[in-house]
Amino acid sequence: MAKDYYETLGVGKNASQDEIKRAYKELAKKYHPDLNKNKGAEDKFKEINEAYKVLGDEKSRTHYNQFGTADFSGFQGGGAGGFDFRGFGFEDFGDIFGEMFGVGGRKRTRRGADLRYDIEITLEDVAFGAEKEIRINKLEKCSKCNGLGGTEAITCPECQGTGMQRITRRTPFGMFSTTSTCSKCNGQGSAVKHQCKNCDGTGRVEKEKTIKIRIPSGVDEGTSLRITGEGEAGEKGAPAGDLYVVIHVKKHNIFERDEFDIHTTIPISFVQAVFGDEIEVPTLDGKARLKIPAGTQSNTMFRMKEHGIRSMRGHIGDEFVKVTIQVPAKLSKKQRELLEEYAKESKDEINLQKGFWSKLKEAFE
After folding, report:
1. Cα–Cα distance between 212 and 225 in angstroms, integer?
2. Are strands 256-258 and 261-269 parallel, antiparallel or unpaired?
3. Interatomic CA distance for residues 236 and 142, integer angstroms
4. How far is Cα of residue 69 from the mean position of the Cα atoms in its chain?
5. Is pLDDT above 50 for 102?
6. Is 358 exposed, middle or buried (CB count within 10 Å of its CB: 0-12, 13-18, 19+)?
7. What is the C-alpha to C-alpha distance for residues 99 and 222, in angstroms, rounded to an integer?
8. What separation, in Å, do the N-terminal and C-terminal C-alpha atoms of the chain show?
9. Using one digit for the tens of pLDDT, what is the confidence trace for 132-179?
10. In this structure, are residues 119 and 244 in contact, taking their beta carbons and an 8 Å threshold?
């Protein structure tokens, strides 16, 4: 019984050659043994190719339509009754595998590699933003040949300008062809007659470059800034990659960061705590005055509005100042006499101790 090749490809007898080709591509992808491991996929793949060998060629299709069969003697390949697909749209079959395995039939350029640079900045840089200069060694486009690798561009003799190489090998199913990027022109489809001596034909040279970068205020540790086009130059004039600058914030000697707020601890004297005072405190942009009320206790926290870090949206955090009372380690004779007199008058020490022991007793009762 004659085979119905139209049914095999799932098309009607009046289908156009383009419709047959599209149907073949879809089925070849679906049943190729390297992609479909189900039982029977290999046999189905053979049937699809047999059908396309006949219907994909107008002469064979005409003969098949008239007589219901086709003479395949002229198409037999070597070994186990396999098929030789040459001459029957195999360029399309190569495109199929280009789609499946990432190999296309068009010229491709290879974009330059992305680069990473780690930079350490201060908390002041974070608070107000900063402009920095960095130096990196990278592959730049050769200025002598403008990145082409030489002069007098010609069509690549290896791939005839397609940018792809076709390799044909014999398999148990017959002759099998695959396509890959041309190794001679790297997929460009062109070559040069006279190789550039400055870059040895690569189109790129290694150089040290100074780059200015703008660090926005409010950045966090580990923030990555993307500098478009400052990576390595692409091959044969292809676009350059990008530079990623990774931010690291140096630990500050005075301040600790809490998102956009900052915290610091300032010592004050016993006298300042008792009588109050106006003291000078450090800030990220210099110094500021802070009023200490009389009777301030140790570890009191003061808020200095908008003395913190500016966010990228314009919000400014605050500075929080915690004061600690320093007890003098040494006293003069007069200071000691005055404090003893003060203690007798106020009986602070006795009252404090009584209060402490009373609370402790209550806790255990």
Report:
1. 12
2. antiparallel
3. 10
4. 57
5. no
6. exposed
7. 38
8. 106
9. 999 999 999 888 888 877 777 778 777 777 777 777 777 666 666 777
10. no
What are the DSSP calls for 121-166, one per residue? Answer: E-HHHHHH-EEEEEEEEEEEE-TTTTTSSEEEEEE-TTTTTSSEEE
Extract the runs of DSSP E, i.e. beta strands, from 14-163: 83-84, 115-121, 130-141, 150-155
217 close to 309: Cβ distance less than 8 angstroms: yes
Contacts of 311 (CB under 8 A, 6+ apart): 217, 218, 260, 317
Taking only the tens place, the pLDDT of each residue in 192-239 is: 778 888 888 788 889 999 999 999 999 999 999 999 999 999 877 788
Tokens 């004297």 -> residue: 269
Give residue-wise pLDDT tens across range 240-270.
999 999 999 999 999 999 999 999 999 999 8
Token pair in block for residue 312? 């990228």
pTM of the model: 0.56
Which tokens go with 239?
Answer: 């676009």
Name the nearest CA neighbour of 280 among 296, 304, 258.
304
Query: What length does the chain have?
Result: 365
Residues 6 or more apart whose CB falls under 8 angstroms from that of 20 comprise: 9, 11, 52, 55, 56
